[in-house]
């Protein structure tokens, strides 16, 4: 159990981290976003509910660290057609909450987000509950895990090729 | 146009080497397609392994219509229309489950999972009515081929085997990748929506001309050998099986490599359990041949695309609105292979797929593109001068040639002219 003071310090650091992540995503700063990950990072966007077993069932994204890197490399080619031109994006993040600590000391945190995407197809709104596990590495917060529970992940979705 | 062409006029829109752009954008033509193709010919609906037990059901579709695929207590597969025979309410609101019956929430009419009306509330109001005439609607003909369930709304017409024709052999080829000879559809579907006409998807599935360009971003960074299969020097072929079924046959390239599992970018050593089970099932020599050749890349008209490691089901919702349902193929008795199939499929396809998001971008840009009025035609003449026949008499051509599109449109025209 953290003291009230250290809890306030932690939530302030975590909030700053989540805002920064959101900005890097909105502005397609792919390499800076990738640098937020720990070496064992897992980036997961489930389909057909929030509680599926990603080892048995299809997810929209279920990237280990090397596939995160591949995803970023593809975007950096400039020939990822679905992001050429890039979507224009802005997202609001709120409801940031520290959750019970993880074994091993990772910081467990959740937030809600709503993303407005403007692409060649049309304007699209995405809404999600985001679950993170964050960790201090060399004094800096890093993401070890990000799970994005899209509100409409049971439905047929348009292409989701920006960083959610 | 907005007026459906008469039978004699389809030839004005569909020629041997080109088709009119309005075929993709005209709402009246879309309505005619629903009647002449989706509600008449054989359409893939689901797989028997999705309803393994008595009373299992899963909700599928034929075009915009919701179809409940059930396995009844006798073990028979039924394709029921999700519409109460009373006032039309949908009787099933869940994607899947296990239920002996479906009770409509509107007036509590209850239907057995074989479609029979078994009860309604306050039955005295229906005295003298014949319940057997108030069953759920159903897809008129239901037939399976090696576990793949197809339905046709036409009471008469070709059998499923006649419809599949030469393409049935590709499904035979596919199921051999299970040491037990069975495909399983158990990994759940990603549903990827595109604002584009369904035929852009249909035609792209066996278009071997685009991968080098649409997918160069991923081939380059993933150090993939796939790009070469679709290069100018490739010996792979495109094939037209007739009845709208088309294939990209990559076996000539994989046989040159002569390395089992190379088609899947791996080796026997990395899948020791699978390799042992395949050799036990088929013998060393045949297992080796199967594992060199690789799974098929075949588009079964109008909506089942088997894409080596995954399968897609194309669903048209409106003239400019379509859904690709996609899942990893799973082979019965092959756990280590299945895990890799799921991992590779998740990376490649669906809304965030490293491959399919770019294909889908092309579908949407094509749809917006053909709204321009000139030139009126889509040109599909690539490789027409070098078409040849394989040993079974099917048309084949270079992997980048447009034999598949021409075959699809020839069959499409025959279906549209038949009514």
Radius of gyration of chain B: 22 Å
Structural class, judged by helices and strands of chain A?
alpha+beta
Give the helix proportion of chain A (percent range).
10-25%
Strand tally of chain A: 6
Assign an overall shape of chain B: globular
Describe the main β-sheet of chain A briefly: 6 strands, mixed
Beta-strand content estimate of chain B: 25-35%
Per CATH, the class of chain A reads Alpha Beta
Percent of residues in helices of chain B: 25-40%
Number of H/I helices of chain A: 3
CATH superfamily of the largest domain in chain B: Naphthalene 1,2-dioxygenase Alpha Subunit, Chain A, domain 1
Q: What is the CATH fold-level name of the largest domain in chain B?
A: Naphthalene 1,2-dioxygenase Alpha Subunit, Chain A, domain 1
- Oligomeric status: heterodimer
Here the CATH topology of chain A equals Nuclear Transport Factor 2, Chain: A
How would you explain this protein's 3D organization?
The complex is a heterodimer of chains A (164) and B (419). Chain A has 164 residues and is an alpha+beta fold. Chain A has one domain: Nuclear Transport Factor 2, Chain: A (Roll), CATH 3.10.450. Helices cover 24% and strands 39% of the residues of chain A. Chain A has three helices and six strands; from the N terminus they run H-H-E-E-H-E-E-E-E. Chain A has helices at 4-26, 30-34, 65-76, and strands at 37-46, 59-63, 88-98, 107-118, 123-137, 140-150. Chain A has a six-stranded mixed β-sheet with strand order 2-1-6-5-4-3. Chain B contains 15 helices and 24 strands. Helices cover 30% and strands 25% of the residues of chain B. The model of chain B has no long low-confidence stretch (mean pLDDT 97). Chain B has two domains: 43-152, Rieske Iron-sulfur Protein (3-layer Sandwich); 165-417, Naphthalene 1,2-dioxygenase Alpha Subunit, Chain A, domain 1 (Alpha-Beta Complex). Chain B starts with 9 loop residues before the first helix and ends with a helix. In chain B, helix 11 packs across helix 12. By secondary structure, chain B is α+β, with helices and mostly antiparallel strands. Chain A binds chain B through residues 45, 47-48, 52, 55-63, 67, 70-71, 73-74, 77-82, 120-122, 154-161, 164, and chain B through 95, 186-195, 214, 216-218, 220-222, 323, 326-328, 339, 342-343, 345-347, 350-352, 354, 357-358, 360-362, 364-365.
């Amino acid at each position: 159990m953290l003291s009230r003071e250290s809890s306030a310090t932690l939530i302030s650091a975590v909030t700053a981290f989540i805002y920064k992540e959101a900005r890097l995503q909105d502005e397609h700063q792919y390499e800076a976003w990738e640098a937020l990950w720990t070496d064992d990072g897992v980036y997961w966007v489930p389909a057909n509910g929030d509680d599926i077993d990603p080892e048995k069932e299809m997810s929209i994204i279920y990237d280990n660290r090397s596939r995160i890197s591949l995803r970023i490399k593809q975007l950096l080619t400039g020939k990822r057609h679905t992001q050429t031109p890039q979507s224009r994006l802005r997202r609001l993040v709120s409801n940031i909450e520290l959750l019970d600590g993880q074994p091993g000391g990772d910081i467990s945190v959740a937030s809600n987000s709503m993303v407005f995407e403007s692409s060649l197809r049309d304007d699209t709104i995405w809404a999600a509950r985001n679950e993170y596990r964050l960790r201090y590495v060399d004094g800096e917060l890093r993401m070890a895990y990000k799970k994005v529970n899209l509100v409409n992940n049971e439905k047929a979705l348009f292409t989701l090729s920006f960083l959610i | 146009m907005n007026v459906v062409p008469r039978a004699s006029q389809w030839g004005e829109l569909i020629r041997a080497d080109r088709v009119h752009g309005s075929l993709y954008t005209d709402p009246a033509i879309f309505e005619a397609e629903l009647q002449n193709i989706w509600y008449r010919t054989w359409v893939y609906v689901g797989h028997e392994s999705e309803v393994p037990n008595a009373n299992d059901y899963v909700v599928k579709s034929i075009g915009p219509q919701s179809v409940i695929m059930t396995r009844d207590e006798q073990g028979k597969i039924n394709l029921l229309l999700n519409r109460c025979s009373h006032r039309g309410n949908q009787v099933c609101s869940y994607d899947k489950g296990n239920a002996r019956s479906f009770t409509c929430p509107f007036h509590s009419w209850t239907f057995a999972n074989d479609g029979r009306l078994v009860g309604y509330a306050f039955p005295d109001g229906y005295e003298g009515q014949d319940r057997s005439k108030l069953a759920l609607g159903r897809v008129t003909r239901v037939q399976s081929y090696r576990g793949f369930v197809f339905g046709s709304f036409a009471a008469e017409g070709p059998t499923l085997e006649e419809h599949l024709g030469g393409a049935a052999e590709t499904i035979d080829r596919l199921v051999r990748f299970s040491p037990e000879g069975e495909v399983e559809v158990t990994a759940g579907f990603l549903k990827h929506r595109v604002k584009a006409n369904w035929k852009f998807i249909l035609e792209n599935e066996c278009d071997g001309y685009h991968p080098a360009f649409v997918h160069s971003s991923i081939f380059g960074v993933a150090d993939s050998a796939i790009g070469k299969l679709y290069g100018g020097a490739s010996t792979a072929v495109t094939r037209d099986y007739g009845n709208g079924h088309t294939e990209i046959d990559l076996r000539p390239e994989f046989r040159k490599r002569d390395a089992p599992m190379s088609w899947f970018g791996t080796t026997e050593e990395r899948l020791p359990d699978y390799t042992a089970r395949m050799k036990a099932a088929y013998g060393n020599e045949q297992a080796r041949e199967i594992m060199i050749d690789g799974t098929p890349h075949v588009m079964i008209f109008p909506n089942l695309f088997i894409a080596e490691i995954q399968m897609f089901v194309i669903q048209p919702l409106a003239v400019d609105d379509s859904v690709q349902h996609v899942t990893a193929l799973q082979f019965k008795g092959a756990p280590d292979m299945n895990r890799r199939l799921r991992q590779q499929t998740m990376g490649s396809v669906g809304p965030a797929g490293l491959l399919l998001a770019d294909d889908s971008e092309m579908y949407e840009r094509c749809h917006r593109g053909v709204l321009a009025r000139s030139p009126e035609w889509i040109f599909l003449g690539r490789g027409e001068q070098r078409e040849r026949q394989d040993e079974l008499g099917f048309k084949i051509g270079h992997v980048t040639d447009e034999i598949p599109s021409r075959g699809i449109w020839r069959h499409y025209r025959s279906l549209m002219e038949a009514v």
